[in-house]
Structure formats: structure tokens, C-alpha cells
Amino acid sequence: MSNERRGRSYMKRRVVLTTLVTIALLAVPSTMSAGGPPGQSDATFAASYAANGVTNVSATTQRVSCYAPEVVYLDRLSPNQGYPDGGMSPCGGAATTGEDLGPYATQDVNNPAMRVKDRSESDLRVDPTNARHLIGQSKWFISAEGYNHLLGFYESFDGGQTWPVQGHVPGYEGWTDNTDPVGAFDPWGNFYSLVLPYQFYYDKFGSHKYDNGSNQINPSVPPEAVAVSVHPTQTLPGTTAAASWITTHDGAPDYVVTVPNASTNDPDKQWITIDTNPTSPHYGRVYAMWTIFVLNPSVVYEAHADARPDGTHTDWSAPQVLPTVSGKRFDTYLLPHVAPDGTVWTTTTLNPVAHGFSHNDINLVWSTDGGVTWQGPLPVARDVIAPTYQNTTFREGIVDTFAVGTTKTSKGFYPLYVAYEDGSSGLSNVYLTASYDGGHSWSSPILVNDNLDPVDELQPNLAVAPNGTVSVAFYDRRLACPAAGSSEAGGSGIRYDPGTTASPGTPWGRANYCVNSAIQFYRPNLAPIGRNVRLSAHTWDPQLSAPHQSCICSSGTFIGDYFGVDSGGGFTFTTSVSTFDYGGENSSFHQQQIVARIPTP
């Protein structure tokens, strides 16, 4: 997610976290492995990609996407700074998606279309009516340096082998950015994208400014909103497949909520789930959740509507505040899922400013009546330390992830699963816990990553397959960057990376710097199925073409706060970032989305 605490709060968090991690590192003996008990060797992990029948497809290099931005930002970084193809570039007729290139109904300008270059942070969903139909979403950057992006989507009809339909998610182009890719299919195969459009402008240094009033860049639309676009199963008449989206409700933009001031009432962390269980009393109900940051406190909300087979829906219910720990309004990270009986569950994460946003308490709330009333919270995990990743400049992601099992336990409850990253050792590790009694008790957390050497393992995301198999996907840093002169050197683009302040110099062969994606499978009772499996065909460099989330002038960068995972049709799929050049498709080493497929055990 965008994690747009927008400026002061987030910078304070980075300072506090850096201090805490420095203290933790000093407390960890050099012989201790932050990865926990001995696991598999790096060589075995590297070979697990082929051994487990994993395939990779570079999804977002298959089409050229362009759109006209509300705000143009032309400053750029150079190749020797890690940006071989930096800055905005005019589309120039290069688009191959069939999407609308603008201008758009919500805009008050007539800017030229620009080419989408980078795709960071992602979500992936398998259609419950057709397991070969998948839709991924990602941030769709036209300027990584300016953090200038809409949301984009990519669609497959053959189980992830090809992605012929792509483009930006339309409807909210009149804001500077649209953020936080998250979506869900309804029971009829219509796809809902929950969009967070927000306005900002750039000051003379390139910093993002969120002033309102006379400085609002587009006064014809709200400063910020949570809204919906729906990609219907059947292409709308008179449109292309890429442009076939329903973006209005009763003739107006499909807003779930709007705010009058993006500086003091800041929606963020929106998430969506839809009840696709035929026996549920709330079949077809769409649940939208979000956080509003009100200066320092934050308040979590829910609203719902009922989907219709044609891709439309009923009116959104009035937003209601979800229950939180009494007297502590610093909750965020809503991750709703619906159990087969129609109960909707979500975790909430309490990380108060008093602790510099570094200490996280994970709680659970739920509704058994279709979101009309809510119960909880119940505690899940306490004092989870948000990590600060070593050596590179991209920030930590969403601390936790949540999923619901498919079959009731002997006690009559559907299993509940929570995974989280924790930095208490000085490095990031991934843990998993489960509840089999409706969240009243939780198993002792188990370490997910099985690396031998101490490195960062980060940004977990959970999924439960239709057969009940649990998967934890995460970014993995146990494999060193490609060495100079190796077979992977040319495709890695590392020659463009000057290194970082914490780890200077071109990072050939460097440890705990480059990234792969990985996955661990479990039985419903959390018995592990094999070892961690490598999902990336190639190790990639996260510093290349990395978006700057607050200013081109700052060192902080971004690979996303999460990435997508889902299961269906006997396979588990992930969509995650890579800057590696797969066969000449990414010769400028942009952030692209790689879809991995692995048989589900």
C-alpha cells in the first residue's frame, strides 16, 4: 500500500525505526542466525525453482500502456544513478493496449499521454467462476522519480500464460495519483477494483504537497476519495476490452467515501472482499474497508453493498467505525476475508505514534450479519516490531497478512491464519500463527523462512487454496546479487546501480541486497509441506528504477508494501516485482510484474 502518512509522521517513523534496529543489531551476537533454526542451503533454495515446476511470465512487458496525467513532472534521474530510462516520456503512438489515452472526464487539463514504465506493488485474483481467468493490478508509473502513477491491470484467460488485456484502471484520472492496488471478483466474474485517488502538487524541490483550497490542483474533484471501478465479465458496448469498466453509480462517480481535506483527513489502506459463497446468507455482498488518518489518531471504517450479475451494485451503506482496543485509536491495515458461512473477518493493526509506529499489536474483528454489526477486537499478536531493511533504500511493507480456511475444524470453526514480518532480531523474519476456535486462542508463531545466513525476509502475503492448503509468499534476500562477469550479470542491470549510503559501490555479488520471491506451503494444521521454494527465475536489483515516494530529492524508495498471491485450478500464482531483463523484454531495467505459477500441493 501507499503507506502515505504523507511526510512528517512517516519521516519520524523512519528515524525511530532506524534507531531501534541499530540498538537491536548491537544486541545480536554475530554468530546468531536471525533466520532461526538451520534450514536449507542457498544452493538447494536456488535449485528449488526448477525442482518444483515453477514457471515465470513477464506479464507487464507484453503490452505498452499510456495515459494522460493530471499533473506532469519532468525531472529525472540519470543512468549512473540507477535509472537507465528515467523520467516521463511521451507516448508518441506507442500504446498497444486499446485503452483511452485521454483527456478524461474528471480532468481539468489537456496533457499529452505518457508511457507507463514501472509497475510496483501488486494484487492478484483468480476468478471463482473460471480458474483460468486471472486479473492482476499494480501501481502504473509514468514517473518513478515523481511517484506519479495511476492503477493498472493485466488480465489472463489461459491460466497466466499470456496477459493480452492491460491498461490503466479508468474513472479517476483527474487526481495526481491513484493508489493501493486491491480487487476482488464477485460471484458472476465481474472484477471490482477499490481505488484511492488523491491530489498533490510538486514544490520546486520535487516534494509532494497536499495543501487544499487555492492550491488544490483540480478543484472539480474531491481532494481524496475511496472509490470503485468494475471490470464486467462482458465487454461493454462501444469499448475495447481494456477500456471496459463501469466507473459510475447512479450517474455519478462510484465513491465509497470522500474527504474535504487530504492533509487532516487522509484515507488510506483501503481493502476489499466479496462474498462468493453460494450458501452464505450474504452471497454477493461487497465489503470495503479503509483507514482515515486524522492528524495523529487513525480510525478504521467499513461500508458494504450488494453486487449484481451485470457488474452494478446497490448503494453503499453508511460508513461505520469498526471496533478497536478501548482508548487506542491508531489502527490500520484492514485485510477482510469472508468464510464459507458468510462471516466476514479482518485483522486490524494497532501501531501508535507514541512508539514511533514501530510496535504493532494485531487484533481481530468480525461480523456474522453481513457487516451490519461488528464484534471484537480479540488479540492475535503483541509487540511485533516493524523492520527496517538493511543495505537498500526501499521501506518496510504492511506488517501482517490474513486469510481464512475453507473447511471447519472439529470445534466448528473455520481456521484463521495470520503471518507477519518482525524486525526484533535486527533483520526481518516472517512468522505464521493460526486460530482454530474463532480467534480466541492462537498457536505459537512458527518461523516461515528457512535461510541459513542472516538476511532480510520480508513482506509476507497469505492465501488459502480451495483444498485448504495454506501458502505464505514473501520477498527473499538469501541469494547474493549476480557476480560481475556471470551469466546473470548482463540481464541484472547491476552495472547501473551505484550502491547506497549503507552499502556503497556497484553491488556485484553482494549479500542481503538483491531480491527473489519465495513461497512456503502448509497443511491446514500448519504442518509444513517441504521447504521454501524459490519463485523467481532470476535474482533482481531493487534499487534500479525505484520509485521515490516523497521526493526525487530523498533517498527513500519503493518496491511496494505487498505483492499478490492467489490459488485456483490446482495452481498457486504470485505477481511480484522484478527489474531483471527477461529475454530483452525489459532492457531498461524497469520494475515489472512477474507472474509465477506453481502446482498447489
Short characterization:
The protein is mostly beta strands. The protein contains three helices and 36 strands. Strands 8, 9, 10, 13 and 16 form a five-stranded antiparallel sheet that branches. Strands 21, 22, 23, 24 and 25 form a five-stranded antiparallel sheet that branches. A four-stranded antiparallel sheet has the order 1-36-35-34, with no helix packed on it.
Count the beta strands: 36
| Count of alpha and pi helical runs | 3
Structural class: mainly beta
The helicity comes to: under 10%
Let me know the average pLDDT.
92
- Write down the Rg: 22 Å
The percent range for strand residues is 35-45%
Could you name the ranges where pLDDT drops below 50 across 5 or more consecutive residues? 1-37
Overall geometry: globular
State the separation between the terminal residues, measured CA to CA.
Answer: 30 Å
Largest sheet: 5 strands, antiparallel
Description:
This protein is mainly β and 601 residues long. It contains 3 helices and 36 strands. It has helices at residues 8-27, 42-51, 489-492, and strands at residues 55-58, 66-67, 114-115, 118-127, 130-143, 148-156, 165-168, 177-179, 183-185, 191-198, 201-202, 208-209, 224-231, 248-249, 252-253, 255-259, 266-274, 285-293, 298-306, 320-321, 331-332, 337-338, 344-350, 359-367, 375-385, 400-404, 416-422, 429-435, 446-447, 457-464, 470-476, 516-522, 528-534, 564-568, 571-578, 592-599. A hairpin with a 6-residue loop joins strand 27 (416-422) and strand 28. The protein is globular and about 60 Å long. 57% of the residues are buried.
